[in-house]
Automatic annotation (TrEMBL):
The lineage of its organism: Eukaryota, Fungi, Dikarya, Basidiomycota, Ustilaginomycotina. Signal peptide: none annotated. Gene3D superfamilies: Phosphoglycerate mutase-like (3.40.50.1240). This is 3-phytase. It comes from Sporisorium graminicola. CDD domains: HP_HAP_like. Keywords: Hydrolase. Pfam families: His_Phos_2 (PF00328). It comes from the Eukaryota. GO terms for molecular function: acid phosphatase activity. InterPro entries: Acid_Pase_AS, His_Pase_clade-2, His_PPase_superfam.
Amino acid sequence: MPAITQSLGASSATGAPTPYLPGPHLLPPDIFHNLGQYSPWFPASPLSAHEDTSIQCTVTFVSQLERHGSRYPTGGAYKQLRKTLRQIAKHLERVPEAGAHGNPTEGLDPHLEWLRHWVEAKKSEDGGLRNRLGNSELTPYGQFEAYSSGWRFYEQYAHLFDDTRIEVNTDFDLEMDRKDVKAKSLLDLVCSTPETSAPATAWSVLPLFSHVRQGVCRVLGSGMSSSSAKQGRHHTQRPFVRASGADRVVTTSRFWLQGFAHKHFRHAPPESAPWPQKGRPAVLDGLKSGKPHRRIRDLPQPNVIIPEARKADKLGQVFSNNTLDVYTCSAFERDYRDNAQSPASIKTAAFASNATAPIRARLASQLGVRQGGSKDRRGERLHLKPSQVQQLFSLCAFDTVTRLDPYGLLYSQPERNEGAMSPFCDLFEPQEFESIYEVATNMEKDYGFAAHNPLHRALATPWLRELLARLEDRAPVMTPPTSINTTLDKDRDTFPIPSAQGPRAFVDFTHDNQLAPVIAALGLWDEEHEWVTSLTTPFSGRLTVERLECGQDDFIRILVNDQPASVSKGSWCPDSALSHSDQLCPLSVFAEPLQWVDQPSEWEKCYSKKDKKRQESESQSS
């Protein structure tokens, strides 16, 4: 059975170095493996997938659901962070240095002097976020996470893309080949004739132009030699890739495809904030660019982009069903999503109120807040709420993934990432990330979207229907359509199924709040298993479903961030005695407990009688 690579190897099957992700020396696990959904991606179990088996198995099909890479805060979170930091900034305007008035217990803790720079007066209007953090889009490190994921995917499943199969969606490869031909023609035209015998043209008459000519030829020649070096490993096939319509999701799919093709990584400058931050290492000269990701040359596109618009919007997207971003379950939208009275919100708030009390007291002391009363001579006292402490926890993650330099990782230049860990991480003790912040995010996701939400199966139904259909080489059930886009799924060009003529690998890109219910609905763990957000839906988190051929039999293996699911746990493989391995479930056994996805019962929980009538009316008019 082919082993799933758990950590990035020193070299790939193509002979090129594999792009490394940060190690524990750069991102300490006690912090960055406990940041919930804001944890940078890490393999959940670096060793357990390497299981020996006497049976020879081959992966014949793979379907992966992957969250977008590391990003800046979304609009709502950005506004809340700005409010909190602005509040701290106004407070610090009146706080002296520690001991400035003879009292060593008053004033700002010397270890937090850096915070003054963050929220200095000229930046107090936004608490220092401007020119530091962007809004919603991927950070360059998030782009690199996606690139690395695509690279690793090819290394793991290269045999699914052999040259004997029909080429599928190779438009970006063909375009690259055409550009290579044009570049070679230009190289021959400009550079093939020696200067000594060249006619009197602008290329040879003046020394200045001669110098320019040499530079142009050097650049063209370098590009051609690089392209020629890759000829033997240029991929002519790729997985079928879909992306939900959010910019950060589409961007992730494009950099993922760039990595899959083993092309050179070059970041796309963020549009909402300068990168790198002031004081961080400058971008390498040869990799500077002023173009946003949509115009980066040769960056591939996904096969299908499904709009996320709830209604027609200014970007021209129109409302449509979306398997990768389900917003058509009325009961969930009404009772759970962004609802302060939902069980997830109530439980998380109650826990945070108690758990953050010591932290709030400690930060008040460190920030020079005077004890007693609601005011002092400097004005209103600084009262940090539990939710604001959680925001500061999250800023540890957001600021760090903003500071991380992918080129330092790609070119083994560790000095480029010195000091990459955000100083906001030092506001907390390392153990507080696991015992407080991770626990809070676990509650939020578990009761909000995963196993303890009564509608999690409904949210998972569309994607699991499509998965089951592909495993059984048939079209998905579309009655009722649930959140499936029937226009796309009825068309074999936009929803192919595995066959001798079609792709055998499928990769979908989504959000954490869609990935969580799908993982939960598969029943991979026992009921007493605690949901851990950082192990399931971190940045670039992924669910991988493999079909393996072992002798004459087909089996299923499921991995969550490289951690294989055990057939002896959970409900996903009810007759585990038939399995030859703790990781392999017979296909027929796996499919049996999933028959509910093709039935209407779970999805119907989304609607009251009034909702159902409206849904039927909308379906008939669409």
